[in-house]
Structures are given as C-alpha cells and as structure tokens.
Amino acid sequence: MTDELIRSSAADLAAKLAARDVTAVEVVQAHLDRIAEVDGGERGINAFLHVNTDEALAVAAEVDARRAAGEALHELAGVPIAVKDLIVTIGQPTTAGSKILEGWMSPYDATVVKKLRAARMPILGKTNLDEFAMGSSTEHSAYGPTRNPWDLDRIPGGSGGGSAAAVAAFEAPLALGTDTGGSIRQPGAVTGTVGVKPTYGAVSRYGAIAMASSLDQIGPVSRTVLDSALLQEVIGGHDPFDSTSLTDPSTGLAAAARVGNVAGLRIGIIKELHGEGYQAGVENRFNESLDLLRAAGATIVEVSCPNFGYALGAYYLIMPSEASSNLAKFDGVRFGLRKMPDDGPVTIERVMAATRAAGFGAEVKRRIILGTYALSAGYYDAYYGSAQKVRTLIQRDFAAAFGQVDVLISPTAPTTAFKLGEKLNDPLAMYLNDVATIPANLAGVPGLTLPGGLADEDGLPVGIQLLAPAREDARLYRVGAVLESLLEDRWGGPLLDKAPSLVEPVGFRQAQSPLVEPVETLATKEAN
Amino acid sequence: MSGDTILGFDEAMAKYDPVLGFEVHVELNTATKMFSSAPNVFGDEPNTNVNEVDLGLPGVLPVVNRKAVESSILIGLALNCKIAEHCTFARKQYFYPDTPKNFQTSQYEDPIAYDGYLDVELEDGTVFRVEIERAHMEEDAGKLTHMGGAAGRIQGADFSLVDYNRAGVPLVEIVTKPIEGAGSRAPELAKAYVAAVREIVKNLGVSEARMERGNVRCDANVSLRPYGREKFGLRSETKNVNSLRAIEHAVRFEIQRHAAILDAGESVVQETRHWHEDTKSTTSGRPKSDADDYRYFPEPDLVPIVSTPEWVEELRARLPEPPAERRKRLQADWGYTDLEFRDVVNAGVMGEIEETVAAGATPAVARKWWMGEIARRAKLADVDPAALGVTPAVVVELDRLIASGAINDKLAREVLDGVLAGEGGPAEVVDARGLAVVSDDGALQAAIDTALAAQPDVAEKIRGGKLQAIGAIVGGVMKVTKGQADPGRVRELILKTLGVEG
C-alpha cells in the first residue's frame, strides 16, 4: 500500500483521494515515512533541509475532514509537495542553501506558496539547492550535497537537485523549483524526472529569493508531464505583487497534456544544441526520441540558432551582474547572520564585510565579484551592455526558429550525472552543463525536460528538452505527454521503475555495511 | 564650528561670478509608498509603517505606485518639462544601513520629465528663468539617528538607530541646469527658486511641502569663476538645507568661503558640505567626485513606465493656475497695494494668508497677523513664519475674540503666547489665563474715578477741551486693570464722567 502511494503520480493520488480510496493523512504519512527512510544518514539522499511533519499532517487532516463534510475541494487538495528552499514560507525556515540565512524565518509567504495553501496541498518540507541557486550539482549547498537516487555517488544536478531528487526518490510526488539557467531542467534530466521552466512571467516570482531577476522563474518538478501541467495551473497566473507577471490565466495546460497526438506538428532540432560536446549515449537517446515523434506523425526539421554559441558567455555576465545587486541586501543589518569583525574597530562597513565573508560560500562570492566588475563604470558597456545585445540576438534566433516550427527539441544536458566532486574545482566545466538550457532563460521562452531513457555507456538518465514560444507553454505539455507515452510504451513502464530501490533487503544491507543500523524496509512493513 | 576663512560678500561678488545648481527632493503625499503598500505617514512610531518590501526582506519585489507616477508627471508639467513616453527605473548601488536593499531604486538614463524651466520672481519683481534639466522618480531612504559621539554623525557614534518608516516614501528629484548670471542676487535667487518649487508642489496637492519635516529638501551646488571665464569652477554641494532662509544663507556663505579659497590661490575641494543653522556656516562632508561609481543598471524587477499622450493631456488639464496668474488673482481679490502684496510674497506667507482668508478672516486681518505679530516672532525665532506653528484657525479665532471685545490687541499677543506654548486654542488660553478684558462698567468707573482724582490737573485740561491729554488717564486705568480693559470703552467713560463731548 505504502509503496503504491509513494510511486503514484500526483494525478493518480488526486483521483484516489477524490474517490476516498485513501485519505490525505495516509498519503502524507507515506511520504514522511519514505523521507525518514531514505533522506537522512551518511548515504542518504539529503534532498530535504527541513521536514514539515506537523503542518503537512494537519493540512492533510483538514482536507480529509472537509472532504468528509462534502466540501468541493481543489483537484490537488491533499496531494503533498516539496518546496525548493529558495522560496519563502511562513512557519518553516528558508535558507537559500546559505549560512547567511541559517535559521531565518520569513514573515511572509511567497505567492506560489499562498496558492499551494489555497489549494490545500500539504507542504512536506524545503528542499536542498546550491547556495542561492548558484550551481549545477547542489554541491554548493552550505548544508551538504544532495545525492542522485540513481547512483548515490553522483550529483543530482543543480541548483534544484533537492527537488529533483526528492521526486525521483519517491519522497514527494511534486516539488517546486526555480530555473535561472537550467536549475529545474538540468536536475530533471540527470534524475530521470520531469521539470518545466514556464514562460518568464507566467508564474509569480514574489517570494523566490532572487538570483537574476530577469532570468529567474519558478516552475513545477514531477515524475510525469501531466503532473507538471496540473501543478503549473495551480501556481501560475497574474500576481499584482510581481510587476513582471503576465496577465494570462494558467489554464489549458493539463488539457494540452491530455490531447494525445502530435500529428502535423513541426518540431525543430536546434543544430547548435547537439552533436559535438554531447555524450554519445545522450545523442543516441535524443535520436531515438526524434524517431518516435516522427513515427507519430510529427515533421522533424533542423533549424539553426547561430547566436546560441554566445549564450553561455552572455549569461555569465547578466546573471552575476543582477546577482551582485540582488545579494547586496544580505548584510547582517536587518535579518540573517551577523558576524562581528574578529579584531579592529567595529564599524558598519566592517560588520557588513565580516558577515558577507563568513556567510557566503565561494561560488556566491565568485559571482558577486564577477557581477560587480561587469557593472563598474568603464566596463558596463563592454560587459553588461554587450551581453544584453547578445540576449536580443538570441531572442531573434528563437523568433526565426519559431517562424518555421511549433516547438524546438534538444538534449537537456550534454552529459548524464557526473560524480560528486568531479567538477567542483572547475567552474567553467560546471557552467557548461547549462549550455542547452540557458538560451530559454535569456529569451524568456518556456522549456520542459522529460526522461529520454538511459545512456548506453553508464545506464544513467538522459533528458530531452522541448522549447516553445513565449506564452505557448501548452505546446510543451502536449508534445511532452505524447513523447512520454511513446517512450514508456517502449520501456514497459516509467523510467524510474529502473532506478535502484534505495532500501535494500535487510540481510543484504547488513552484509554490505555492518556498522549501519538496519532500517525497516518496505518488505518488512508490508509483511506487517 | 567652521574654521573657514570667508571673504566679505560684496568683495566676493566684485571678483567672482557665481554659478548655482539645485537638486530639490520633493516627498510625495501618496497614501502608500513608491513600491509597496505600506502607509506613507510622517511621524508615527518608528518601524511601524513598513512591510517586507520596505525592509528589503529576501524574495520581495517592488510594484510602482501609479499615483506617484501621476504626481511626478504633474510636477514635470508644472515645470514646463517634456514627459517621457517611455521611461525606466534603475538601481543606484551603495551600501548604507538606511537603504534596506543596499541599492536605491531611482531613474538614471531616462527620467520621467526633462528639459523644462521655471520663471522665478525676485523680491523687486525681476523674473529670472531657471532651466530644469530633469525631474525623476525615486524612493526615500530610512532615517538614521546616531547615538553618542559627536554632532550626531555616524563617525564616532556608539550605535545608530534606524527608522525605516521613511524608506520607500516616493520622491521626485528636480535637478536644474547650471544657473549662470545671477550675480550678487544668487542667494536671493536660491531662496526664491526653492520657494517657487515649494509653492508649485503645494498647489498641485502632490506634497505636504513642509520643509521643516523634510517634505522639500534642497541640495545647493555653488561654484565661482572669474568674470569672463566660461569654464565652471569646482563646486561644493551643501546637503539638505531645510528652510528658505537657510538656503539663502548657505549659498551666501559658500560664495564667501569659495572666494576666500580662490583669493588665497588655493583650489576648492569638490565635496558635500553640511549646513549648520546655529553657526550659519557649512562644514566639510564627504568628497564627491563626478566619477562616483554607483554601478547603475536597469531595474529588472520593474517594467517600463509608459505615459501615453492621452494620459499626459488628462493630467495637464488638472494643473492648477500658474503661480504668476494666481498671484495676480489673489492681489485683486484681497485689494492689497503692489507694495503690500510684494511684501507678503517675499515674507513667504501668501499661502498662509490665502488659507486664513478661506478660514473666515478678512484679507486685512490676515495680513495684519501674518505680516505683523507672527512675522515678528518668526524673525526672533529665526524660522519661516509658516513653521512657527500658528494655524489659520488660530488667527481667525484671535480675530473673533478681538472683534467681540473679549480681548484687545495687547491681550491677543499674550493669548498667542499661550497657544504657542501648547496651552490650547485661543479661547481656552483666555479662560485658563484669565485674560478677558474688564468690560464691567462699574469696575471701570471706579478705576476712572481713582485715576481722575490722582491727576486733577489733567482732568482740568480735558474739561478745558485738550482731549489729547486723555491718554494719561487711559494709561492710569489700564495700569490699574492690568491691561485687561478695552481702551475705547475707557475713553468713552472718561469723557462721560467729565461731561465732555468726544
């Protein structure tokens, strides 16, 4: 029963709850149990920085009571969700993965969190991330890295490795992520899950701790395309507290995921986003997806986006510039860590400096320094100014491409998950993980990743990325759901069925690691 | 306080040509702040009119206050500016604890209003045109109070208190082009310019325009150059000069200070200066270079402001009458002579008289008070008359008490003492202090009989027709009644007693 609950999609859980086959308390408890089982300890997933047990169960109990009273509830009421710890929540700490916010409690809820509460979705807890969402491996978290459920010695992607791993490890059916250069999609790719960066402005950013305001976007993380569509419908829509928020309603996304055909659609392969620099197994799975779509009636053509080659460079000027400004508020004056200078006079400048020196990690400091430099008088035009021009060129490339095709397709990331520590000391190699995801952020267009299978050489998940014109998020869900169904038919079930269980039989575990206390397994539970 | 040598003003003006420039910050009186829904209210308990946006908490985003944009366009139009059809906000970045985000959201490359002018009337009626470079929108910072240490400055303070109530209050910063050709009238022009801006924003209804509360704050730039030279000298910027009189004094002082430096063959330091009301002088602030690097960049959290021609015209139709026309109308309404009216304008009390007339006083009575007793007291206290604390309602009530015979002019001044001392309204002060005039004829008659008996020779002179001698007897009565008698009534009774026709 428990295994069935945690492996269910959000849509299936919603149906079971509506049919009263199961209670919300049972659903939430099953996920809390799973978190207790697999998340902690030395070899735990470490997807969660905070587990919100009491509140999640209380919300679930309320849902059950209201349902029993015959009240009309939101479709996802009682379906639990995890929230990336970059998004502020009343009643739970929000750290942004940084020491500078350790223990900080927000006095207000992010708009997306208000929407989750309005839908009565129990919040399971806050998920791990690279500090201030700066990274592609979750290794830059001040609270230790998250592990990839497919291989505990590998990275779960980043910055939203916690949300992706939580969903991949069946600790939550849904999660919220944020995507500035690929932080939802790249972790989705390397953990075999689904993640969507909606059109810029489709989901309110109010309450998401800003890294780069013009690039950041909150989006859904899930195991199925339909689940992401359902979640985007909950969190999307206009917000008067976010001036950059679009006025479009967030409707028709789940309906698009249920259309079920791609016949007559034109799908463009981006010449610049595959081939050289992409792992062979990634390229093979990508070609396989193209074959399936072609066979389903889509027309596949190749398009060129010649300026995408400059995207990474432009991104690493615009993002740090905005980040250096957005992170200026962390100064020890009003909230968070305050560190007094070790010696010398205590002045406000020295307290700010000591606080920022102690509170920020190396990658955050690197980006603040880069951005401060890029915005400095005399350098602004050459760096920030030029990067904005590249951004315009990339938008034109997208406009030209979408003049020819309905959606674009590429691998989500050039490689499968790499080993923990492998690229930690090589920032440029780390930044290259986002080469395929960054153009969408620079242009504000929506992007979706879904599992495309396992790479032949390492047996690790490969992500397929779909891109659509701004405000055409529905196209992603339509094509994504069809491709997902074609692939699952081929695999005989979801890709995650092939992932390790994480909870080995007791005897095996004892033999492998005699020093670790045996834990209750799914098998023994079911026997009870 | 200031150790600066200064040159006599006339000597300075004989040698050097002053160039001025002003940055006037106007706090708008919108109900809420520039980028948040927190109330924009002055004087409340510290840190109560704040929400997460004003405190710059993690995750917050700004939203532009539409009313503030309207007010800014109105100010721009009243200053004869062009209004940008499309303009953006920018972040001005510097670390300081009164700025919660460690950047100020302001406008940089494209202000909402630009290229305007203001015709300023000097005391003798000369009109001087001041060119306006730009008027842009921004947010105010919080208020720091430095505790311990010297002179309330952050250097040497034991600790500092921050009140974020003011953080995020909408500001419009009005920047002039360099003002050349003012000559020795530069100090006067400075005062007249700020007075004119203050009058405009007050008439527009977009600001409370109270300088003593910092609703209108002026930074005055001064530089000198030898006559005939085109290139400007190095400038000083005297910050936050908060009264019209102080602006005049500060500009005058800076001209004299610069002149002494240039005379000594030295170079003026380009820096900010702090004005000190007590010593009527400025002291050195921080060095200010034209290359201060605020790392401005476009505010990515806000979308551009689009001012359609229709919207601008709709706002233009709302503009009140221009100040010059308003003056003409008021003078005609009030029946003042040219000289009387100019004195009223120069004393800066035209608005006060207008309000007092609106509250029920006659123009003559309003002028008598604002140009008389109130002006006298303001001069003694070295403040602007409006800042003294006398409201139009107080003037009206004082006048009513006099007209009813309850008090006389001399007692009215004493009543005003009580009002300004916070003892209540005029009627309350009269009761509390027992200031009502003696109008009991029986009591007056006894005092008159006593006074006449004490000075029989004077009484005889009056009987003989020398009515001018009556003053001595009236004086005696007033002395006995401690001034609380109506001198007119006393005079009548004396004449009646002596059987003389007035």
User: Structural class of the secondary structure composition of chain B?
Assistant: alpha+beta
Count, helices of chain B: 16
Counting helices, strands and paired strands, the structural category of chain A is alpha/beta
Count of strand segments of chain B: 16
**CATH level 3 topology of chain A:** Amidase signature (AS) enzymes
Number of helices of chain A: 19
How many DSSP E strands of chain A? 11
> Under the CATH scheme, which class of chain A?
Alpha Beta
Count of folded domains of chain A:
1
Can you offer a commentary on this structure?
The complex is a heterodimer of chains A (528) and B (502). Chain A has an 11-stranded mixed β-sheet, with helices on both faces. Helix content of chain A is 39%, strand content 11%. Chain A is built from 19 helices and 11 strands. With 528 residues, chain A is α/β, with parallel strands linked by helices. The model of chain A is unreliable at 506-528 (pLDDT under 50). Chain A has one domain: Alpha-Beta Complex (Amidase signature (AS) enzymes), CATH 3.90.1300. In chain A, strand 7 (266-270), helix 10 and strand 8 form a beta-alpha-beta unit. Chain A has helices spanning 2-7, 10-18, 24-38, 53-68, 111-118, 161-168, 185-191, 225-235, 253-257, 280-295, 311-326, 348-359, 362-374, 381-402, 427-431, 438-443, 473-491, 506-512, 522-527, and strands spanning 48-51, 81-84, 123-127, 174-178, 194-197, 218-222, 266-270, 299-303, 407-411, 447-454, 461-467. Chain B is of the alpha+beta class. Chain B folds into 3 domains: 9-314, no CATH class; 323-433, no CATH class; 441-498, Arc Repressor Mutant, subunit A, CATH 1.10.10. Chain B is built from 16 helices and 16 strands. Chain B has helices spanning 9-15, 66-78, 186-204, 244-263, 309-316, 323-334, 338-346, 350-358, 363-381, 392-403, 409-420, 426-433, 441-454, 456-463, 470-480, 487-498, and strands at 16-27, 82-83, 86-87, 90-93, 103-106, 113-121, 127-139, 143-147, 159-163, 170-176, 216-226, 236-241, 271-276, 281-287, 297-298, 305-306. In chain B, helix 4 links the parallel strand 12 (236-241) and strand 13. In chain B, helix 8 packs across helix 9 (363-381). The longest helix of chain B is centred in the middle third of the chain and has 20 residues, at 244-263. Chain B starts with 8 loop residues before the first helix and ends with a helix. The model of chain B has no long low-confidence stretch (mean pLDDT 91). The chains are: A alpha/beta (528), B alpha+beta (502). Chain A binds chain B through residues 87-88, 94, 96, 101, 104, 106-108, 110, 205-210, 212-214, 240-244, 321-322, 325, 328-331, 333-335, 348-349, 352, 372, 375-377, 380, 384, and chain B through 52, 55-64, 91, 93, 95, 97, 100-103, 154, 160, 162, 291, 293, 295-297, 300-303.
